[in-house]
Amino acid sequence: MHMYIRTLAIVALTTLTPTAFAKTCAVAISGDDAMKYDKSEIAVAASCSKITVTLTHTGKMEAKVMGHDWVLAKTADFDGVTKDGMKAGMANDFLPPGDARVIAHTKLIGGGETTSVTFDTSKLTKGGDYTFFCSFPGHWGMMKGKFVFK
Ligand code: ZN
Q1: Contacts within 8 Å (CB) and 24+ apart, 33-36
Q2: Which residues contact 13 (CB under 8 A, 6 or more apart)?
Q3: 88-128 per-position pLDDT tens digit
Q4: How far is the CA of 15 from the centre of ligand 1 (A)?
Q5: How far is the CA of 137 from the centre of ligand 1 (A)?
Q6: What's the gap in Å between 23 CA and the centre of ligand 1?
Q7: Does the pLDDT of residue 13 top 80, yes or no?
Q8: How many angstroms separate the alpha carbon of residue 72 from the centre of ligand 1?
Q9: Residue among 142, 136, 124 at smallest CA distance from 82
């Protein structure tokens, strides 16, 4: 009888564990022609091993006029990334190429478009201070919010 219970427990563990480690959590956010996101805070549970952020541009304006992306960085890196991103220009979606300070980002999109990014939460620290923003020059003044990982 003991053996039987033990076998069951092992089977349960081996089938449940991979699922628990591969938990992908979805976040949806939109930006519009009024230079605003529909969210000022995004909270994700620390039990998520991956996060998929889907950004929808609900406006009509082109990316070169009213482009939006979704970028995640430590709040301490926000100023530096936005300033360097401006120098990187539109060809780089206003982000310094290969910048380690950028934890995750979508591409820059225009009105009517949708884009998404999936990233590993191993790059995040539980309870860390993170900010999400749009890297289009000037947009980050209004288009930014708090990202909570807890
Ligand atoms: Zn924008």
Answers
A1: 33/59, 33/60, 33/61, 33/66, 33/111, 34/59, 35/66, 35/139, 35/142, 35/143, 36/142, 36/143
A2: none
A3: 999 999 999 999 999 999 999 999 999 999 999 999 999 99
A4: 43
A5: 8
A6: 29
A7: no
A8: 14
A9: 136
Token pair belonging to 11: 């089977």
CA of 12 to the centre of ligand 1 (A): 47
Q: How far is the CA of 65 from the centre of ligand 1 (A)?
A: 9
Q: Tell me, what amino acid is at 79?
A: D
- 44's tokens: 């994700």
How far apart are the C-alpha atoms of 106 and 102, rounded to whole Å? 11
CA of 145 to the centre of ligand 1 (A): 13
Alpha-carbon gap, residue 24 to 6, rounded angstroms: 30
Query: How many angstroms does the Cα of residue 97 sit away from the middle of ligand 1?
Result: 18
- pLDDT tens for each residue of 26-53: 999 999 999 999 999 999 999 999 999 9
Residue 140 CA to ligand 1 center (angstroms) comes to 7
